[in-house]
């Protein structure tokens, strides 16, 4: 992901000239404004989604072994990646998983297998929804309707 970020940065970053109005622009309009935005979003999203099967496997392994410290760190890292890209539903699911792991580790609350199972399937579903949405978004950008 860092390579996609580095490629998208301007050669000379002028922080003082940054326009805050750009932040208020709807995402679909931003994609139409600059073709390099499409490439950047596609590359960073691809990085996140291509690692989803591996991450889901790590979640399953952590749940099977009861390694809630590893699960907390994994959920925290994935929460950061998802929220950085604006994938708020996935980030929220990761936050809930991270917090549930935190309670087991630091508050000595017994793990609730049903709760963790539900959280895992929520994360799995959000990855799937995100993949489908991005496929449709980029398909519509590649073939604009007349």
From TrEMBL:
<dbReference type="InterPro" id="IPR036641">
    <property type="entry name" value="HPT_dom_sf"/>
</dbReference>
<feature type="domain" description="HPt">
    <location>
        <begin position="37"/>
        <end position="137"/>
    </location>
</feature>
<dbReference type="Pfam" id="PF01627">
    <property type="entry name" value="Hpt"/>
</dbReference>
<dbReference type="InterPro" id="IPR008207">
    <property type="entry name" value="Sig_transdc_His_kin_Hpt_dom"/>
</dbReference>
<keyword id="KW-0597">Phosphoprotein</keyword>
<feature type="modified residue" description="Phosphohistidine">
    <location>
        <position position="76"/>
    </location>
</feature>
<protein>
    <recommendedName>
        <fullName>HPt domain-containing protein</fullName>
    </recommendedName>
</protein>
<dbReference type="GO" id="GO:0000160">
    <property type="term" value="P:phosphorelay signal transduction system"/>
</dbReference>
